Amino acid sequence: MRFIMSRIADLLVVLFGVSIVVFLMIRLIPGDAVAIMLGANTEITPERIAELEARVGLDKPILVQYGQWIWNALQGNLGTSLWTGRPVTQEIAANIWPTIELTVLSILFGAGLAIPLGCFMAEARGKGAEVAVRIGAIAGLTIPSFWLGIVSIFMVAKFLPGVQALGYVPFHQDPLGNLQRMILPVIALSLPMLANLSRLVRSAMLDALNQDYIRTAKAKGAGRRRIIYKHALRNALIPFITSVGVAAGYLLGGAIVIEQVFAIPGLGRLVLGAIAERNYPLVQATILVMTFAFVMVNFIVDLLYAVIDPRVSK
To answer: How is residue 265 annotated by DSSP?
Structure first.
């Protein structure tokens, strides 16, 4: 319990720091959100700008603005969109599920396939098949996700014209259509993660297989699968889980680009549109939500450390 409480305290400190950074960085974006909003509808005058600034709270000192914003955020009120007039929480809720699905599927695909690939490379070290897989992993690290996504769209359009590769359909409406549209984005987004994690598992497994307890297990007549997947893999999972937590943050960032490539209406497209419109409340809230998700993933990773290796909590 002491270990969990210390991690929760760290989590709160990080979230507080992130909220300050997000709040300040948004105000450094060039341009005047109020002037841009007025320019789309009516003549821009100092009086109109002052009136709208007072209505959205931009006329107050910056410390007061932050205090009001963070207090409202703690109550679930992240503000109102400057363009649609809808609550920001509604805007995010309408676009968050495609991003969650894309990120979760990418993590499951990348991390799930990295373990058997890494174990195979460690077990078949020096053989031709292992060298081929390792070269493929290196290639996966060097290929940009957006380029792979564009190429895969062209390939599908040429050889499988009947397959839908763009857009998004909710899973509950059309499960088959949803999975069909998510295959290419998931592969494009998770390939660098898969390549990196498989190489990491290989290195950790090679180190674990050279330990004394592995030699002892072999001397006692333990089977190959038991040695690899029970004894060696358990100790190799700690650096693996660490990298999964970090990779989740990169996946959230990469999802912004992949959503643009595959026309997926997720948080990535939402935040890019909000930045172009200088929609401060929407940008702040979206970045805060994505950062919170990244911090929570790493918090869960910290807890998994204690499950895999009880010495961590001590």
So the answer is: -
Domain assignments of the chain as residue spans, ordered by start: 2-74, 95-313
Report which DSSP code applies to 229: I
Residue 211 token pair: 């330990």
* pTM of full prediction above 0.85: no
Q: What is the pLDDT of residue 35?
A: 63
Closest CA relative to residue 281, chosen from 75, 20, 56, 38:
56
- Identify residue 43 by its one-letter amino acid code: E
At 312, the amino acid letter reads V
72, 71, 46, 43: which is closest to 59 by C-alpha? 46
Q: How many CB atoms lie within 10 A of CB 173?
A: 8
pLDDT beneath 50: ranges in the chain: none
- Assess contact for 79 and 69: CB atoms under 8 A: yes
Buried/exposed code over 5-36 (b: 16+ C-beta within 10 A; e: otherwise): eebeeebeebeeebbeebbeebeeeeeebbeb
Q: Indicate the CATH number for domain 95-313.
A: 1.10.3720.10
- C-alpha span between 67 and 284 (Å, rounded): 14
d(CA 45, CA 25): 27
What is the phi/psi pair of residue 80, to 5°? -125, 135
- Residue from 145, 167, 95, 181 nearest 253 by CA: 145
